[in-house]
Amino acid sequence: MYNIIYVDSGVCASEGFFSDGISAGLKPNGVNDMAFIYSDMACEIASIFTTNKMTAAPIRHFRAKGDFKTNFVLINSKNANAMTGKNGIEDIDEILTKCDEKVINPVMSSTGVIGVRLPKQKIIDGMKLFDLTQKNPHAAAKAIMTTDTFSKEIAFKVKLEDGTSFNIGAMAKGAGMINPAMATMLCFITTDADVSKAEMQEILEEITKLTFNAASVDGDTSTNDTVMLLSNAKSGVFNRDAFKEALFKVMHFLALEMVRDGEGATKLVTYNITGAKNDSEAERVAKSLSDSLLVKTALFGEDPNWGRVASTVGASGAQCSEDTLKISFDNLCVYDCGKLYFDEEMERKAAIVMGHKKFTISCDLGISDGSFKAYGCDLGHEYVKINADYRT
Amino acid sequence: MYNIIYVDSGVCASEGFFSDGISAGLKPNGVNDMAFIYSDMACEIASIFTTNKMTAAPIRHFRAKGDFKTNFVLINSKNANAMTGKNGIEDIDEILTKCDEKVINPVMSSTGVIGVRLPKQKIIDGMKLFDLTQKNPHAAAKAIMTTDTFSKEIAFKVKLEDGTSFNIGAMAKGAGMINPAMATMLCFITTDADVSKAEMQEILEEITKLTFNAASVDGDTSTNDTVMLLSNAKSGVFNRDAFKEALFKVMHFLALEMVRDGEGATKLVTYNITGAKNDSEAERVAKSLSDSLLVKTALFGEDPNWGRVASTVGASGAQCSEDTLKISFDNLCVYDCGKLYFDEEMERKAAIVMGHKKFTISCDLGISDGSFKAYGCDLGHEYVKINADYRT
Q1: Which residues of B touch A51 (CB under 8 A)?
Q2: Which partner from A123, A266, B193, B352 sits 20 to 30 angstroms from B61, CA to CA?
Q3: Structure confidence at residue B68 (pLDDT)
Q4: Which H or E run includes B325?
Q5: Does B180 share its domain with B283?
Q6: Residues A300 and A223 in one domain
Q7: Cβ distance B19 to B239 under 8 Å?
């Protein structure tokens, strides 16, 4: 048995971690645009990067280092350092030579516009403002935002039965999920749990599949997507079940925060697929629904158009049939194997569910026991507005 | 050698074909909502139907008939007869028993809202207004529209060197391509060419891949998608090359008309992919671009954001690298293997191209010689408006 308790200190929740955000003039008006995470002990790193083949320079730079420990992550917003070729790598090398002398094997992470060289001197000057003794996680979380309308942080203290404890904290950015123009999704997780690199990587991959990879705003995959988990093992404590549960809570919360902040989104919808041939077919259906433009616009219009849901299930390629399918909006069944008559009373009730900010669309395919949950949002005028003119 | 000459008579261009559209009261205000195509000789049929597993009743009804010839197609708009189970099939059976006595093996095709039974009596009453001696192709093309803002027709006379000739004509509907709420894409092609069923099917499949299947408004696949090619062989003439070229012209024109009429679309963009590992990887890249929300909203905003194009190419999964990629907007190269500096002058020129109603985005992946062309449109506020409230 263990307790997982919410704490307010984001990426600084774990022992020995420091963080802050400052303004280096990359964004206008003195808004925070650079952040660091520093640990007073070297950390093992688990990481998951984008599958986009046009991998941004920071990720190529990280990968080229091979197996290593670090105690310092430098993050900038406003510029993704993507599609910048060898220059992009050289810029990182030069910037990282200017780190504080306490720093070992520093890494860099960037988000923002694609195809423009980093403003190197501004970043180097900005680093001089860093104070590695600061614990200002909220300032850091603000500094990594792009079109995010709010910052995204969470942290937990995990207390084990024997009185020992460890911590997990995180910050993330991402509002178009996943938006290549912004090189969107970044998540940095820190822990003082005494977990091995291999175990940490295994757990991170498992949970990413159920959280960040199950969340969609626009179905895109950026050049810069990064999830990084740093452990300095400072607590000397580890319990796999507790660690896994706490990490799931952290990542699930942040993934849903990103969808909630989806560009112009007004609704957060869970797609709960059951009865599929297997889990992977359920995942296919869930993601088809969360990515469908027609479903997303119906959500925005609060139109209880179950026909679009049924048709999208059919178009997903998963095994299904109108004779075994059931569709519910929250607890209201709107299609039941063709046996239900969708009358005006039902339409009225369904429209009430669709009026909520948060609800679940469930599809039971009635084939076997495969299941998956995905998370999506609606698509409205604000999305078009934000994305039709992102750069200017 | 042969000549392909435009004629104005749509699905009635071919000898022995008759067609008309009438109002049966399915749509309000006396707007045309039912059409027929009749041939005075029985026709061989080539057909391609949706891959959606929630196949609409008319398609299941057609397939259940096995191998047959027909001389009559009944088409209604406003109701898709989809997700209607056995009732949907029985309704079609009952309706088709009321056909004129000259009709053999009639088939039915429907488009409109999903999940509502056909208004059977209205359709049966509407059929009484049909006059099988009429040649009113434009009225028929109007009757099959849903959210289309204009009707879509084309026909050609094909003259061979020896003085003989045959005809191909067609009508289509589709504005969200492919929009399940409207069960969107229908295309009916008639010809008097003396082509065998097998050859006609083979050519139809080949050309569908390069036309309708290369065109995308919203990347969806409906419950009712149908392409049907009817040949009564009345001309006694056939030339494979000429037939293929004319059929390509017909289907290419109609596919582009659908994209041009894409819900709320203001731009028609050709994605010309070359230099891919193979044709299928080129197709993957082309379709990723035409389906990308971020590319589509940038088009709407006339924002020459080549970074979104590069990132979408990278996200497609096709083999590619920023060191070999070239991107052009019409003839203006905006990215050349990282060697180009995208300055303000270039941005100004690129913005001019993006201001056009029609342009080409070319990506040369620089890997090998695979190529594909896809067709797409932008996504703007009108799309959201139309789709947020389709049914009400």
Answers
A1: 315, 317
A2: B193
A3: 97
A4: none
A5: no
A6: no
A7: no
Query: Cβ–Cβ of B53/A318 closer than 8 Å?
Result: yes
Mutate to test the interface with B, among A293, A299, A336, A340 (most CBs of B within 10 A): A293
* Nearest residue, CB atoms, B53 vs list A85, A218, A320: A320
Interface confidence: ipTM more than 0.85? no
Cβ–Cβ < 8 Å for B141, B20: no
Average pLDDT of the residues in A250-255 = 95
**Contact between B307 and A83 using a beta-carbon 8 Å cutoff:** yes
Indicate whether B252 and B277 sit together in one domain.
no
* Pair (A250, A284) in one structural domain: no
DSSP state of A78: S
Is there a contact between B354 and B299 (Cβ–Cβ < 8 Å)?
yes
Cα separations in angstroms, A269 against A107, A259, A272, B26, B47: 36, 9, 9, 34, 38
Among A84, A303, A389, select the one facing B391 at the smallest CB separation: A303
Q: Which of B70, B184, B208, B274 is catalytic?
A: B184
* Residue from B337, B347, B358, B219 nearest B289 by CA: B219
Residue type, A69: K
Task: Output the CA torsion B322→B328→B334→B336 (10° steps).
Answer: 40
- Hey, are the CB atoms on B300 and A388 less than 8 Å from each other? yes
Mean pLDDT by 10 residues, chain B (392 residues): 96 98 95 98 96 92 96 96 95 97 97 92 97 98 92 97 97 67 76 97 95 78 90 97 97 91 84 97 93 85 88 93 96 93 89 94 98 89 66 42
Residues in chain A: 392
What pLDDT band is residue A386 in, cutting at 50, 70 and 90?
Answer: low
Q: Name the residue among A53, A115, A388 with its Cβ closest to that of B306.
A: A115
Distances from the Cα of A310 to the Cα of A80, B277, B388, angstroms = 39, 36, 17
Can B149 be counted among the known catalytic residues?
no
Count: domains in chain B: 2
Residue of chain A minimizing CA distance to B288: A220
Q: Is A297 a residue whose pLDDT tops 90?
A: no
Contact flag A115-B342 (C-beta cutoff 8 Å): yes
Determine the pLDDT at residue B62: 97
Residue A219: pLDDT band by 50, 70, 90 thresholds? low
Residue that finishes a domain, picked among A259, A280, A296? A259
Please give the model's pTM, rounded to 2 decimal places. 0.85
Q: How many CA atoms lie within 13 A of B263 on its CB side?
A: 28
**Model pLDDT, residue A368:** 98
Q: Are residues A253 and A280 in the same domain?
A: no
Tokens (6 digits) for B9: 């008579």
CB–CB contact A83 B379 (8 Å): no
pLDDT digits (tens, 9 = 90+) for A157-213: 999 999 999 999 999 998 764 443 344 789 999 999 999 999 999 999 999 999 988
Q: Are residues A174 and A286 in the same domain?
A: no
Domain final residue, candidates B222, B241, B260: B260
In this predicted structure, what is the pLDDT of residue A190? 98
A55/B292 Cβ within 8 A: no
**What distance in Å separates residue B262's CA from the closest CA in chain A?**
13
Cβ-Cβ contacts under 8 Å, A388 against chain B: 297-298, 300-301, 303, 380
Buried b (16+ CB within 10 A) or exposed e, B199-208: bbbebbeebb
pLDDT of A216 > 80? The answer is no
Residues A151 and A186 occupy one common structural domain: yes
Domain that holds residue A105: 2-259
User: Do B281 and B364 belong together in one domain?
Assistant: yes
